[in-house]
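Please produce the structure of this protein holding thymidine-5'-diphosphate.
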Amino acid sequence: MVDLPVVNDPRGNLTAIEAGVHVPFDIQRVYYLYDVPGGARRGGHAHRGLHQLIVAMSGSFDVLLDDGFSKKLVHLNRSYKGLLVTPMVWREIDNFSSGSVCMVLASAPYDEADYYRDYHDFLADVVGG
Ligand code: TYD
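Below is the modeled complex.
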């Protein structure tokens, strides 16, 4: 988890994220998930080389992380907390609250060749199974 800076202000709080300062990679892409219907599940893949920071900009959701050896469930519900996801980690995102927004900062442009879409292919490469 990364604690992002918060500038508290009675007019509303402000958080800024700078590449190389708050995230350990150059930010080359930003995307966000929104209007997620109840019960939907996103993710379901791993990346070969991509680094990402996931932030719950609004609402909350769960991120299940799996490196092939152990699994960890992280609940994100603060816009000043970021979850760093390194390469070769399978992730599933679900339990989205109504109106939630999941923002992802990424270290590279979209590249389908960087994805593992099949869990068994992923496992075979990380644990040699
Ligand atoms: P995907 O990464 O599978 O979504 P999620 O992990 O959130 O469930 O992406 C879904 C589709 O969206 C993918 O097939 C192509 C498109 N897409 C882009 O065009 N650009 C992007 O940066 C991303 C992340 C996805």
